[in-house]
Structures
1.
Amino acid sequence: GQNIDQPTEMTATEGAIVQINCTYQTSGFNGLFWYQQHAGEAPTFLSYNVLDGLEEKGRFSSFLSRSKGYSYLLLKELQMKDSASYLCAVCDSNYQLIWGAGTKLIIKP
Amino acid sequence: IAGITQAPTSQILAAGRRMTLRCTQDMRHNAMYWYRQDLGLGLRLIHYSNTAGTTGKGEVPDGYSVSRANTDDFPLTLASAVPSQTSVYFCASSVSSEGTDTQYFGPGTRLTVL
């Protein structure tokens, strides 16, 4: 079966760095997405990785290792507004998105 | 309208009633999707449409139906609601049906079936 694993919840301190991991087992791979979802709101796009390596976009970076079935989202200089759930989704061989359950990130002052 | 809208924002419904959730996008996207989101579970695809006039079943289609008469609108109908359909429903769209395109989400409809 297809599976996406993410930690359920993480806590970090304002100004610090946090890494949210995502491991996947899917039938084929056509890219991995990260979305951010604030409580009570819609998911919004953060990043898309299809090749191995690190992609940096401001305070957020996303890493992919296809051979290991692994990705992480790195958030630097954490701000209170970064408190949200972070969703990992993999595009499989049928070009369907498989979603993880999301990681709830709590930022403390 | 800018982006994708959903109506109603929230609804409480008696079991057995029929309900249609509305979704409209103004981005001229070809593909549209309906998801449900439940606590502790990932987004689960209910139905999708690759282009106007076509629809397909997702992971959890039972009890739901959709139509895509034009590019902009993609309503989701619960023919006879049951309590297990209590959830938050998100409509989304993307330029094409290839999963590599970014999906844009509406604000969601919170549905409670009693």
Note: The mean pLDDT of chain B is 95.
2.
Amino acid sequence: GENVEQHPSTLSVQEGDSAVIKCTYSDSASNYFPWYKQELGKRPQLIIDIRSNVGEKKDQRIAVTLNKTAKHFSLHITETQPEDSAVYFCAASRPRAQKLVFGQGTRLTINP
Amino acid sequence: DTAVSQTPKYLVTQMGNDKSIKCEQNLGHDTMYWYKQDSKKFLKIMFSYNNKELIINETVPNRFSPKSPDKAHLNLHINSLELGDSAVYFCASSPDRTSGANVLTFGAGSRLTVL
């Protein structure tokens, strides 16, 4: 089955700097790669996703890149703000799959 | 107005007891899930139902029994609770799988503490 590895497990950056979180997946048939943000005590919420037919997607300060050959994808957050502090999860799923497989999560802390 | 609602939000109980968590979604989604989030924040799928049919059972102990009376509801019953069952249990739903993207909407979570 699919296995998703996520790094780093914790990340601390200065406000205004960029943050990058990386994930690798094992199943070459996976074609959907979302990122979820979970604030303290809250539910995970989708922030951005990418499908395997594109290499990059951007939404304001966040972007995701995908390298299908290497089977890895990354989340980039620019001009970080205190409200970006949260746990971020990457995930992967196969076409018409009934489940998302999540990475282990990255706790991002933005230092003022 | 809540899209995916689950109750109770908090549950504190003794080892050996039986407890249930209920989940309802008003999004018209076909698929519902239970995920377990442990103290290290790992999000692990437990069950998936599509239109009331069990699709995925991820080697969860049979003390855990999901039940879907209709496609808008998915409940989780746990027998003989153990200390290791302490976790946050998230219900989630997603649209028809043929849409090609498994976009999950999560409930607020139910924090289970077994003493």
Note: The two ends of chain A are 41 Å apart (CA to CA).
